Amino acid sequence: MFGLVLLVGIPVLFVTGALSYAAYNPDLGPLNDQTPDKGWLGFYLFDWPTRPAWLYRLVQGVHVTLGVVLVPVLLAKLWSVIPKLFEWPPARSAAHALERLSLLMLVGGAVFEFATGILNIQLHYVFPGSFYTLHFYGAWVFIAAFAVHVALRLGRMVRALGSRSLLGELRTGLADTRPEPPDADGLVAVAPAPPTIARRGALALVGAGSLALFVVTAGQSIGGRLRATALLAPHNRAPADGPNGFQVNKTAAAVGITAAMVGPDWRLELHGAGPVRSFTREDLLAMAQHAARLPIACVEGWSTGDQHWSGLRLADLAALAGLPDAASVLVDSVQPPGPYASVVLRGNQIRDPRSLLALHVNGVDLALDHGYPARVIVPANPGVNNTKWVHRLTFRA
């Protein structure tokens, strides 16, 4: 039963993770791509859409929430096969050695992927190197081993599931629980001790653990009243009241933004087909303003509710730069160089009328932590690609 749950859940985890990677538009260049030299592993990449606006929120919310919920199931599955993990000798033949190697990749890959993912969403990532690089390549190693393992063991799992009734097991209490008969693989103990928990108890224990993790995690993605129940989520609650009182990943202080960088001398530079143009914030406020209601969704799985943003359409700025049909735009922040200080957006993101260089949120000026004096907000875009503290837009043909 644990294997059946993982057989369904792990492919969903992999697909949503792969879609999350595609949402970063990594094939636009190294600024967006934290996993260089992906080669043919990026065969499926496509132009990430802007509709529906909640698409990335859904994809990443499912990925993170499901990953957390499956932890008890994974641990129970590993517990059930512990004798196989430590059998001796480790290899009895070449074929057995290959099987053991696939098992090492499967178990090691599972532990690595779940551990790195959970540490990242808790903002305590401690592994050397980029999370994106390690998690991306680790996912491909894991899913390859998973596919091999399923091919080798699917028939056996089907026979095991058909060997007894699930409802019958759920009706069987501890007093009537009997050990499994001996098996060819040596998973069953030779002389088992009396049972201390029924099979239905094991299923209930793991299921209750998964349900509890869902309750204390899912609210960060679902929002509304459930946000208050997301006790294990770092961004489960808004940091303050008021129009700017919604979640933020990195504060201005955390990335080195000072008052001088965004003070009266701040300018927005517009690069394109003609000469470079420069605008003060007052110049931008004097232009036609547009509005959109959009959430922010982040790779850690948290998301805000829809916020009311207003500012200038990226499409109008592209026209001002002399490239109304721009294929992409390079967005540069005033923050010191580092991951996502600059990103590239696609042409379809520029042309969406809800894609803004936002100057206000919920009717007031952006707070410094939310990107004052100007930030990008694009529908269905990963949060870190909605660059804050923007000072240069370079539209490209």
UniProtKB/TrEMBL annotation:
Membrane-spanning segments: 54-80, 101-122, 134-154
Pfam families for the chain: Oxidored_molyb
Domain of life per record: Bacteria
Transmembrane found in the keyword field: yes
Domain named Oxidoreductase molybdopterin-binding: residues: 265-396
Cross-referenced InterPro entries: OxRdtase_Mopterin-bd_dom, OxRdtase_Mopterin-bd_sf
Keywords assigned by UniProt, alphabetized: Membrane, Transmembrane, Transmembrane helix
PANTHER family assigned: BLL0505 PROTEIN (PTHR43032:SF2), PROTEIN-METHIONINE-SULFOXIDE REDUCTASE (PTHR43032)
Protein name: Membrane protein
Organism: Streptomyces rubellomurinus (strain ATCC 31215)
Organism classification: Bacteria, Bacillati, Actinomycetota, Actinomycetes, Kitasatosporales
